[in-house]
Write a structure and sequence with these properties.
Blueprint: H1 2-17, H2 36-48, H3 62-70, H4 72-79, H5 91-99, H6 102-109, H7 116-139, E1 151-156, E2 161-163, E3 173-176, E4 190-197, E5 206-212, E6 215-217, E7 225-229, E8 236-247, E9 259-267
Parallel strand pairs: 3-9
Antiparallel strand pairs: 1-2, 1-4, 4-7, 5-6, 5-8, 8-9
Helix pairs in contact: 1-3, 1-7, 3-5
Length: about 270
């Protein structure tokens, strides 16, 4: 959630002050805002996963985001006002607190344990920043008019891990693994998908609906883990699994649902 908000902040502030493309953003003197090493690091992620990232900033990892935000001149020009509530002492304070999140973030991304103290830091520091940004966007009249839950991350039993590409899901997210031989399925296999929903929304405030081959499973239940035994009826070049988030409000971001992700696999015939 924190990374999602920081990417939104960087993209929108750079677009306003420098350029919508952070890799080509230049200051008034004509120099690149981001150092060459950082630009090359982000470009490598874009090259390694073509088509995955909607914007260059989406390929930036947490340490990249910290480097961009805490650079003294860009912090002053772009981020000081937005982060003033969380870091009243400026960019050095921001860097100190953000850097404390790097170790637990890296451990969690590799499914390694973290300490209780690290978990407390992740929760407290992340929420301090997110709520400061929400206040900032409300102050400048850009609070989300469609304040409803979204999926932040999805991962499956093949090891795929995908993140939301924008702070608000304007369009369905689609991830197609049907041409990846390492992700092929057969009847008798079991496929598992898990999701993380924006934790700032109450667990009781929404439901998750899953469908495989457009057939609903566990309708009306709030399940963030889906286990699908693969059967003959799933065989096909493309077997979509659809995830919908539906809040308990009387309105929805997309009329009948608030977020929609589609994950596609190929199911081979039984041996």
């Amino acid at each position: 959630m924190l990374e999602l908000w920081l990417r939104r902040l960087i993209h929108e502030q750079f677009e306003q002050i420098y350029s919508s493309d952070i890799l080509n953003a230049k200051n008034a003197a004509g120099d690149f805002v981001l150092k060459k090493e950082l630009r090359e690091h982000i470009e490598k992620h874009l090259h390694d996963r073509p088509g995955r990232y909607k914007r260059p900033v989406d390929a930036a990892l947490l340490d990249d985001l910290i480097t961009i935000i805490c650079k003294p001149d860009t912090y002053t020009n772009c981020f000081a006002t937005a982060l003033a509530v969380a870091f009243p002492l400026g960019n050095e304070e921001a860097q100190n607190f953000l850097n404390r999140l790097l170790v637990p973030r890296n451990h969690l991304s590799h499914a390694n344990p973290i300490s209780i103290r690290q978990a407390e830091q992740v929760i407290c520091y992340s929420n301090d920043i997110v709520y400061a940004l929400r206040d900032f966007y409300a102050m400048i009249g850009k609070a989300d008019a469609y304040n409803a839950p979204i999926i932040l991350r999805m991962w499956d039993s093949f090891g795929h891990s995908e993140h939301a590409q924008a702070a608000n899901a304007a369009l369905p997210h689609k991830f197609d693994y049907s041409d990846d031989p390492a992700s092929y399925l057969r009847p008798g296999d079991t496929q598992t998908i898990e999701i993380e929903v924006d934790p700032s929304f109450s667990d009781e405030g929404f439901i998750v609906k899953w469908a495989a081959n457009y057939v609903d499973h566990q309708p009306g239940e709030r399940l963030v883990k889906f286990v699908l035994p693969i059967e003959d009826r799933h065989v096909g070049y493309q077997m979509p699994i659809v995830i919908k988030i539906i809040s308990h409000q009387d309105w929805h971001r997309h009329q009948v649902w608030d977020d929609f992700w589609q994950v596609i696999y190929r199911v081979l015939p039984p041996v």
